[in-house]
């Protein structure tokens, strides 16, 4: 080759290298980023799991080192700073903000700075990386059923003995904050699930609403499905336009899981199943009741064409949907399994509509009603520089003052037994959810809680799309999760 | 510092420059070498601490159980045994390979088409080049967010266009058969980067060959197939290797399309790519050791695939300027 040609090609290669390195949007060299699960890349690229406009705005500001807190602007200069992170978004985070501000006013020597960070029930990547990076918060709002797993991983700090009294709290809520006999979080709120329905849609389709009367007990699944099928409406291309109900999923964006709250736990409990045997330290996804719950989801999907259902979901509920556009409020969905937070949502997003709720339907007439309760908690992060102040704040927000405010504003339920007896906190609708609590079940507090939930969700996804039989999918869950549980223990 | 390889079997006693030890170098060369190293030392330190050290640490972590917070606990090859028995690992591998084998050839074709378009001798070619290149400067997560809206089966612009053309309009995100194709579509918006590289290659093709072939009566397709493509084969190989490397690490678009990977990874786990599963294991389940084992496995797979591509390339890559 002529010398000038070689020069030209070397210039070309040099400019190629410059362009590729300048424009490449993954980190450093392929080998390095393949081999190192670097914390920086995922957390830099990952936005909030439930991004609403305000969370996105605060994230835009916080995309660099520290997220911007939304409280603590008017603190005294020499106040001890306590950093509090939550993954909740409005309207729930507004209620939290009021509690934090009340605490700051009452305790001028402590300044609690609350920040909304990306995260979800089982995704605490931001918290993990911040702990490793030494910029962790002092208090984190953790989904309660994941507390044992996070405690086992070392993400949460043990609370001093005697911080809280077991007798004050709802028993299952207290149990979820324990790991190997020590307390790792303070229970905050709880909730319950029911079958919500759009009265206008159901009446227009000719459903018998007396079956949904709570005083008559729970309706049967067959009745509810029959009513829902009357509400189903297809458009000219044969795709679902309005759906009567969505007992399971797929979830938002066509992902595996529940569309609303019709989770694996919901239907497994409804069919009388048990998900774990705590005394034997075993997960029991192949329990007959659990399999029956999954079988119901499989059969329902089959009867309604899994792809058509999935298409309706991805059309009406894309990934990260805004709460106001939920198909239940826009008149595209007749019934849904959902929680008590819908009460405050309805006031905001569909005040003109006529909605009601009743027990989750049962397999056979006369079966006991079933629901399950979840909820969140306040947890202490290790190596906190303001440990005593952080615990003081946790006892406030998860104590009487905090839970009172949160119950009234967010229409979740309190975990303090004394507050559950306080009638002034509950309007009549909310009271009915409170009445579900005594018979509500809860998720087993396992050290692999988050992993178990994800495995069950994955199985649920296959069953919803009819790509696997329930028993096969659930056997895989057992094979995946039991070894992890064995290595950590109960 | 020119490194001239000695001719094989030469009679002379000239030793190849690269084999000479440091102390055998002359003073001038030694000084030049030290200055050179000094100038690249910032990059060298960065590479060692942020490149080499994490790689070695990852190899070590793959033999431990580690949540990221407490000290790692040595458990030998348990992570690897668990990995091979894990159905989701195989699913993630299948998803990633499916995506890579689809996205990379398609990417090469589109980059070539774009480069040919950018190479046209029209007056406004600078405008066209900018327009074709612009989509690739958008970060992947921005494109993914936009595609989530565009791929909505009912209201999305893609399906509306398909319906208007009387083509089937699939359920992009809900149908496991189409989710990875959605990923491939998103990746093609980055074709502008490679198109630039292809453009540089196109400019390097000697014009005399085209003129000679026109005299012989070659058609456009024959010119393309017999002149352009052979000269472009090194660039195509480069695109294949880089595309393979990026394809095996696809994460951002899958993560965004599934709404942030809270629990699910697409319909029936069809968007669970390898690095996505690795991320879930590391950060959602606290299994850093297992994730490290997956990294090591990915490294091995990548090296094997790259070596295979290089071996295969010997058969069809033509380096102009080498002896035949």
Please give a structural write-up:
The complex is a heterodimer of chains A (490) and B (324). Chain A is of the alpha/beta class and 490 residues long. Chain A folds into two domains: 200 residues, 3-Layer(aba) Sandwich (D-Maltodextrin-Binding Protein, domain 2); 219 residues, D-Maltodextrin-Binding Protein, domain 2 (3-Layer(aba) Sandwich). Chain A contains 20 helices and 18 strands. A five-stranded mixed sheet of chain A has the order 2-1-3-16-6. In chain A, strands 9-10-13-8-14 form a five-stranded mixed sheet. In chain A, α5 runs antiparallel to α16 and α11 packs across α12. The longest helix of chain A is centred in the first third of the chain and has 21 residues. With 324 residues, chain B is mostly helical. Chain B folds into two domains: 45 residues, no CATH class; 233 residues, MetI-like fold, CATH 1.10.3720. Helices cover 65% and strands 1% of the residues of chain B. In chain B, a hairpin with a 7-residue loop joins β1 and β2. The longest helix of chain B has 35 residues. The N terminus of chain B is likely disordered.
């Amino acid at each position: 080759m002529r010398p000038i040609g070689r020069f030209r090609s070397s210039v070309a290669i040099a400019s190629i290298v410059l362009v590729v390195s300048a424009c490449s949007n993954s980190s450093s060299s392929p080998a390095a980023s393949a081999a190192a699960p670097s914390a920086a890349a995922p957390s830099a690229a990952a936005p909030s799991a439930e991004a609403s406009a305000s969370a996105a705005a605060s994230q835009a500001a916080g995309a660099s080192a520290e997220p911007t807190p939304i409280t603590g602007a008017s603190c005294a200069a020499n106040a001890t700073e306590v950093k509090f992170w939550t993954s909740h978004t409005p309207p729930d985070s507004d209620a939290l903000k009021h509690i934090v501000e009340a605490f700051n006013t009452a305790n001028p020597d402590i300044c609690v700075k609350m920040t909304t960070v990306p995260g979800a029930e089982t995704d605490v990547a931001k918290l993990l990386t911040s702990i490793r990076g030494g910029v962790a918060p002092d208090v984190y709002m953790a989904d309660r059923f994941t507390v044992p797993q996070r405690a086992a991983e070392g993400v949460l700090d043990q609370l001093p003995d005697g911080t809280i009294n077991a007798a004050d709290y709802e028993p299952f809520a207290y149990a979820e904050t324990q790991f190997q006999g020590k307390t790792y979080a303070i229970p905050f709120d709880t909730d319950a699930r029911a079958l919500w329905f759009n009265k206008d849609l159901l009446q227009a389709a000719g459903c018998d609403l007396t079956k949904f009367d709570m005083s008559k007990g729970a309706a049967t699944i067959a009745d509810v499905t029959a009513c829902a099928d009357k509400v189903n409406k297809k458009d000219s291309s044969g795709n679902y336009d309005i759906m009567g109900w969505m007992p399971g999923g797929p979830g938002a964006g066509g992902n595996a899981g529940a569309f609303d709250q019709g989770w694996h736990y919901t239907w497994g409990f409804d069919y009388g199943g048990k998900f774990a045997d705590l005394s034997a330290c075993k997960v029991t996804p192949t329990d007959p009741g659990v399999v029956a719950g999954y079988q119901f989801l499989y059969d329902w999907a089959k009867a309604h064409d899994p792809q058509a259902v999935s298409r309706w979901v991805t059309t009406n509920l894309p990934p990260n949907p805004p709460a106001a556009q939920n198909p239940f409020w826009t008149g595209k969905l007749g019934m849904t399994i959902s929680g008590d937070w819908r009460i405050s949502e309805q006031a905001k997003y569909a005040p003109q509509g006529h909605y009601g709720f009743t027990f989750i339907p049962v397999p056979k007439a006369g079966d006991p009603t079933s629901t399950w309760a979840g909820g969140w908690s306040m947890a202490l992060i290790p190596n906190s520089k303001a440990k005593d102040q952080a615990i003081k704040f946790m006892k406030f927000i998860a104590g009487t003052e905090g839970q009172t405010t949160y119950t009234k504003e967010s229409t979740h339920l309190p975990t303090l037994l004394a507050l559950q007896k306080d009638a002034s906190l509950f309007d009549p609708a909310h009271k009915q959810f409170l009445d579900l609590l005594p018979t509500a079940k809860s998720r087993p507090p396992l050290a692999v809680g988050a992993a178990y939930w994800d495995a069950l969700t994955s199985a649920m996804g296959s069953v919803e799309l009819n790509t696997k039989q329930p028993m096969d999918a659930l056997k895989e869950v057992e094979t995946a999760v039991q070894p992890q549980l064995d290595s950590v223990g109960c | 510092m020119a490194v001239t390889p000695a001719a094989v079997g030469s009679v002379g006693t000239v030793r190849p420059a690269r084999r000479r030890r440091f102390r055998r170098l002359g003073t001038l060369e030694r000084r030049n070498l030290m200055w050179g190293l000094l100038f690249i030392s910032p990059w060298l330190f960065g590479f060692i601490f942020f490149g080499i050290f994490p790689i070695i640490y990852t190899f070590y972590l793959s033999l431990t159980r580690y949540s990221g917070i407490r000290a790692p606990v040595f458990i030998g090859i348990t992570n690897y045994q668990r990995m091979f028995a894990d159905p989701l690992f195989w699913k993630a591998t299948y998803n990633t390979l499916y995506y890579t084998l689809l996205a990379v050839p398609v990417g090469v074709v589109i980059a070539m088409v774009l480069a040919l378009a950018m190479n046209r001798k029209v007056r406004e070619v600078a405008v066209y080049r900018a327009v074709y290149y612009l989509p690739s400067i958008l970060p992947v997560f921005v494109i993914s967010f936009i595609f989530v809206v565009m791929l909505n089966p009912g209201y999305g612009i893609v399906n509306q266009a398909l319906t208007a053309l009387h083509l089937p309009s699939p359920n992009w995100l809900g149908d496991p058969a189409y989710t990875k194709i959605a990923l491939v579509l998103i990746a093609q918006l980055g074709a502008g980067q490679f198109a630039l590289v292809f453009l540089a290659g196109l400019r390097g093709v000697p014009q005399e060959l085209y003129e000679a072939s026109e005299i012989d009566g070659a058609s456009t397709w024959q010119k393309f197939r017999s002149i352009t493509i052979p000269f472009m084969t090194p660039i195509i190989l480069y695109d294949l290797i880089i595309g393979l490397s990026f394809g095996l690490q696809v994460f951002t678009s899958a993560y965004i399309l599934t709404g942030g990977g809270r629990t699910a990874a697409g319909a029936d786990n069809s968007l669970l790519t390898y690095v996505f599963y690795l991320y879930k294991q590391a950060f959602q389940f606290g299994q850093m050791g297992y994730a490290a084992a997956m990294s090591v496995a990915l490294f091995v797979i990548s090296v094997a695939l790259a070596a295979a591509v290089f071996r295969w390339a010997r058969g069809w890559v033509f380096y102009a300027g080498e002896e035949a």
